[in-house]
């Protein structure tokens, strides 16, 4: 086939264009067949030549083959500040450091630790008036949270049936046998 063109990129995506000469317009829709490299037909472009015949260029596109392990993995992490009220242990923090919820829903902490938290076990039964010890939570309105995104990019000839349901979901374990820290998702 004189004039055939093909290309393949780094992701193993292939495109093959095959020209055919036909005597009638109807023939342009029936020529071809076969699947070069097993690729499906994705389009036909027809043009009429000066002598009245037609040329049709059939395009085939897809992946060359199912790559065995050409998956790529990315891990992006960052710290973000979140409101202290959203901390998973806010009840414990509030009781330990004397946090008080204001009318606006924000939690504030006193400048000095409550007396029952300034040493000892907190089982002494003493009142919770302020001690001389500075409260490390005084003025704190946020806390740092590690946010991480793990991406897996892969190329498949056939789309997995659960692809749309699993997009954007949180997994218990990382794919590909990569180690997953315990207590994380």
Would you write up a description of this structure?
The protein has helices at about 90-95, 165; strands spanning about 5-10, 15-20, 40-50, 55-65, 70-85, 100, 105-110, 110-115, 130-135, 140-155. A four-stranded antiparallel beta sheet has the order 1-2-4-3, with no helix packed on it. Among the domains are: about 5-65, no CATH class; about 85-140, no CATH class. It is mainly β. It contains two helices and ten strands; from the N terminus they run βββββαβββββα. A hairpin with a 5-residue loop joins β3 (about 40-50) and β4 (about 55-65).
Level of helix content? under 10%
Total beta strand runs: 10
Mean pLDDT: 82
> Which spans of ≥5 residues are poorly predicted at pLDDT below 50?
120-127
Would you list the SSEs in sequence order as H and E?
A: EEEEEHEEEEEH
Shape: rod-shaped
Distance between the termini: 54 Å
Given the helix and strand composition, which structural class is it?
Answer: mainly beta
Sheet-strand content, in percent, reads 35-45%
Lateral arrangement of strands in the main beta sheet: 1-2-4-3
Largest sheet: 4 strands, antiparallel
Q: What is the tally of helical segments?
A: 2
